[in-house]
Amino acid sequence: MLTKRIIPCLDIKDGQTVKGVKFINIRQAGDPVELGRKYAEAGADELTFLDITATIEQRSTFAELVEKIAQNINIPFTVGGGIKNVDDVARLLDAGADKITINSAAVRNPGIIDALAGRFGSQCVVLAVDCKQHASGSRVYLDGGRTQTERETQSWVKETVDRGAGEILLTSMDHDGTKNGFAIEITRAISELVSVPVIASGGAGTCQHFVDIFKKGKADAALAASIFHFGEINIPDLKIYLKNKNIPVRIK
User: Fold this and answer.
1) What are the extents of the domains in the chain?
2) Tens digit of pLDDT for each residue in 55-78?
């Protein structure tokens, strides 16, 4: 059985790690290079770096910062934010990223998924989906959660996988930063819909929340930020908890 992955996330704004609640009320969380090193040493399975204002500010991701972090970790490293074309991805991979995550540019130009998968391989392309529940169903948001689209979450995810996305990073904006638990229903629906791995994001607050998203939500990985940044849960303790709940994890 494949092990479940624990992935700390570095949300980057102005070169510093930050964290908000439901994509707003942003506060400082520490130096990204030091945090990345700490998480790698603590046994994190991967690290994700999201430049959360690159798209809205119409600029590229901080390649120099990506390079500094990559030099200090020995785990798979996913980078996203502000990616618009194949050249952007090539630059980030050269800087040390193992995978890239793309959201807004993919919705605006779905063909970029085909292009990236064709050039770098599906294993390199993580499709990030920021979604929010409405009366009519779950809808996709862009620009760091600022722009609502008419795209329905499940149909969009299915299209992106058909185009070559190798993994889905699903963030529930309704749950983000609340520490009330992951969005189990939409995560399970997506996990059952596609054959690629699904990373659940948004809402982690307790060790039991990770158990729930793996068992009930059928996620392949779980991503969290503030509970790790501010020392509310440490990764070794979380993994021991999960192992005791019969969830397969890699123990360092």
Assistant:
1) 5-244
2) 555 555 578 889 999 999 999 999
